[in-house]
């Protein structure tokens, strides 16, 4: 029987964080044996915020290296760069005409990004979810593993696909979102009621997978917590947001339940707990970094992966695009 299809991606808008890894990439690795997976580097999404071109090119290749270093097998999965498959932009245009201003203006990420980039509220920021819908629908994905912040975009993708199918028949598969048990929303280390983001202006707020190990440990040890001194997970209690976050991170990297972890620290202070979280995170990242470093001198290998990836991505995405063009009445 054919395997079900997964599509997902990360923007090369910064060095990927522990949040991107635990919310998305770690699950891609876990799911790859049971699904046929298409993982893209979403460079077109990243220019909704100003990027330095040389940095963007570098980060795109670094991200490809990281996908592989995190454990995604490039022989078994399709890895490609979004801008190298033109059907993404082409389908996004068509879907723009089937998406309403009202629904786009309700998107939380759009509102957050407008607040962060008040000097550059461009149309791409507004239609970002339509491009994301195109990314997913082109590959007829069954499942889209993402962090919690992207679930709203999966919902709008389902709405757009359903609307299009209602008009033209079964053109798109309606995808499901997939959230991890632990790590679906890793919070900032400095403001733990806010999501950890790779483009945060304050580098102490996030852990980059490429940070030095002693920097990672330092960031965790100085993470904002509270003055109660009790390591306990309390869902929804904002005063415990910092400790909840560290417990969640520990749970995600060790595979243990937060309650069991918290029990180990009964009667102990935050110092011991933070030191152990730091060690667990560093040990989890260590093999990823070793693999990443081993790929660094091998540009030809990376070029061959994204070149082959682009060829395959174009072939698959073009098939869906042709179907769409035919349905809407374009001359083929
Ligand atoms: N803090 C997070 N916790 C869990 N998952 C997260 N993701 C992002 N932040 C967290 C998930 O990572 C995947 C890739 O995200 P993206 O690069 O497409 O964009 P994003 O969601 O906007 O991530 P960032 O890090 O916040 O990027 P910037 O700073 O550029 O906006 C997605 O599956 C996302 O859910």
Automatic annotation (TrEMBL):
Pfam hit, one: tRNA-synt_1b
Recorded GO terms, molecular function? ATP binding; tryptophan-tRNA ligase activity
Identify the gene encoding this protein: trpS
Q: Which family does it belong to?
A: Belongs to the class-I aminoacyl-tRNA synthetase family.
Q: Motif ('KMSKS' region) spans which residues?
A: 195-199
Q: Return the EC number.
A: 6.1.1.2
Question: In chain numbering, where does the motif 'HIGH' region fall?
Answer: 12-20
Question: What taxonomic classification does the UniProt entry list for its organism?
Answer: Bacteria, Bacillati, Bacillota, Clostridia, Eubacteriales
- Please give the catalytic activity noted in the UniProt record: tRNA(Trp) + L-tryptophan + ATP = L-tryptophyl-tRNA(Trp) + AMP + diphosphate + H(+)
- What GO cellular-component annotations does this UniProt entry give? cytosol
Recorded hits in SUPFAM superfamilies, A to Z, give:
Nucleotidylyl transferase (SSF52374)
User: Binding residues for L-tryptophan, per the UniProt record?
Assistant: 135
Subunit structure of this chain's protein: Homodimer.
Recorded protein name is: Tryptophan--tRNA ligase
Alphabetical keyword list: Aminoacyl-tRNA synthetase, ATP-binding, Cytoplasm, Ligase, Nucleotide-binding, Protein biosynthesis
Give the residues the record marks as binding ATP: 11-13, 19-20, 147-149, 186, 195-199
What general EC class does the enzyme of this chain belong to? ligase
Q: Where in the cell is it found?
A: Cytoplasm
Kindly report the protein's main subcellular placement as a broad class. Answer: cytoplasm
Could you give a single Gene Ontology term from the biological process aspect?
Answer: tryptophanyl-tRNA aminoacylation
Cross-referenced PANTHER family, in alphabetical order? TRYPTOPHAN--TRNA LIGASE, MITOCHONDRIAL
Functional summary from the UniProt entry? Catalyzes the attachment of tryptophan to tRNA(Trp).
């Amino acid at each position: 029987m054919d395997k079900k299809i997964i599509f997902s991606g990360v923007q090369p808008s910064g060095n990927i964080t522990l949040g991107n890894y635990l919310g998305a990439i770690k699950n891609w690795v876990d799911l790859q044996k049971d699904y046929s997976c298409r993982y893209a580097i979403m460079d077109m999404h990243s220019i909704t915020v100003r990027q330095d071109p040389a940095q963007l090119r570098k980060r795109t290749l670094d991200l490809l290296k990281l996908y592989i270093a995190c454990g995604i097998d490039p022989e078994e999965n399709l890895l490609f760069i979004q801008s190298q498959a033109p059907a993404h932009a082409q389908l996004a245009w068509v879907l723009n005409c089937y998406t309403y201003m009202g629904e786009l203006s309700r998107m939380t990420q759009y509102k957050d990004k407008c607040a962060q980039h008040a000097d550059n509220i461009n149309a791409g920021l507004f239609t970002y979810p339509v491009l994301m819908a195109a990314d997913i629908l082109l590959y007829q994905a069954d499942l889209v593993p993402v962090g919690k912040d992207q679930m709203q975009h999966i919902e709008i993708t389902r709405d757009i696909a359903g609307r299009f199918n209602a008009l033209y028949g079964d053109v798109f598969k309606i995808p499901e979102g997939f959230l991890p048990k632990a790590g679906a929303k890793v919070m900032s280390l400095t403001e733990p009621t806010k999501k950890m983001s790779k483009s945060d202006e304050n580098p102490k707020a996030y852990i980059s997978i490429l940070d030095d190990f002693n920097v990672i440990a330092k960031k965790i040890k100085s993470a904002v917590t509270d003055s109660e001194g009790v390591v306990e997970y309390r869902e929804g209690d904002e005063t415990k947001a910092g400790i909840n976050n560290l417990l969640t991170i520990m749970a995600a990297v060790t595979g243990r339940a937060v309650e069991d972890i918290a029990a180990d620290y009964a009667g102990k202070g935050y110092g011991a707990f933070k030191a152990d979280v730091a060690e667990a995170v560093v040990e989890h990242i260590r093999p990823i970094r070793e693999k990443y470093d081993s790929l660094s001198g091998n540009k030809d290998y990376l070029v061959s992966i994204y070149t082959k990836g682009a060829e395959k991505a174009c072939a698959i995405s073009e098939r869906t695009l042709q179907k769409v063009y035919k349905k809407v009445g374009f001359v083929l």
